Amino acid sequence: MQQQQQQAKTPPPQPQTNPTRGSLPAGFKPTTPPPAPKPSPNRGSMPKGWTPS
User: Where is the composition biased (Pro residues) (predicted)?
Assistant: First the structure.
C-alpha cells in the first residue's frame, strides 16, 4: 500500500500569477463571500458616520 502512495501522480503546480495569492490558480474564487460591511458591536445601532460628541 505504501508503494502505491509513492507512485500517486501529483498534479503540476499552478502558475503563480500573483505572489500574494500563493499557489492558487488565477481563476480561483474563495467559497466564502467577502464579509459584508457591518457596524462594530461596540457602536450598537448607531449610524456608520456617527461619532461621539
Answer: 31-40
